[in-house]
Amino acid sequence: MDNKTKIGRILEDGGLHHWGVASFADTLPVLPCRAASRLPRDAKSVIVCLLGYYAGERAHNISRYAWARDYHLLAEELLSPVAERMRETWQEQTFAVFTDNSPIREVTAARLAGLGFIGNNGLLISPAYGSYHFIAEIVTDLWLEPSEPVEAGCGECRLCLDTCPTGALSPFGVEKSRCRSHITQKKGDLTAWEQDQVRKGGLAWGCDICSDVCPYNHPPCWTDLPDFRRELNGFIREEDLPRLIKERAFGYRGVKVMQRNLRILKRKASGAGPDTGE
Question: Could you give the angle at the alpha carbon of 121 between the alpha carbons of 210 and 245, nearest 5°?
C-alpha cells in the first residue's frame, strides 16, 4: 500500500471523506503569520480537507458558518487525532495541522488538491459541499503524489456578482471595504453607510448572499460531520454573548463588536437612525 493510500485510510477512519494533496512548493509563497513557525522545515506536501457546515435552515441573525461551535476548535478536534495517527505511522516525519489562521493559501491549496474551483466570489466551489465548507490542512515533510486540480469554473454565471448588494464582488476580485461580512467584523465605530449595510443585511455577523445564490448550493449539500450539526445557535441576543463569546467563530473579535452590531440591528427594529457617536 503506498503512502497516499495509507493517508486516505487514516483520514476516512477519522470521518474526513473529502480530501486531496497539493505539492507544498505549488502553494508558495506562504502567508506571513505566527503559525508559519510550525511549518515542517522541509515541507513537501499539503493534505487539504474540506469540512462541510450546512445544517439546514432556521431563523438566524448570524452567518451559517457561525451557528455551530467555533470551526477552529472543531477542525482541531477532527484533525489532531488524525495527524497523531500519521505521526505514529511515519515516526520520522512531521505533520502540522492548520485551519484559517494558516500560512497556507487555503483556497489555492484546495484547488490544487483537486477539491474544487475558485468561484467569482473568491470561495472554493466543491462538488462535495458547494461553498458551505471550511478548509483545513495538514502540512508534512512526507512526499505524497499530488492530486489533479479540477479544471472547471463559473462559466457564464454571474449570480453572485450581480446579487452582491454593495458591489463588493467583481471579475477582478473582492473589495473588502464594501463586503458586508468584512464590515460586521471591523472593530471600532462604523460609518453611517456601514451601519446601514449591517441593518439592510440583517445579520450581526457575516453575510451569506454570495453563497446562497450560487447554483452549486442548490440543493445545499448537508454536512456529514456530526459535530457541525450539534449545539447550533443561529439567533444571538446580547445576553447570550458572555456564554458564547469563547466558543463561537465571532468570538475572536471580542464582545464589543457583536454588541455594536446587535444594537445596530435593534435600532433598525425600533426605527431609530444610525449611531452618530454623539
Answer: 65
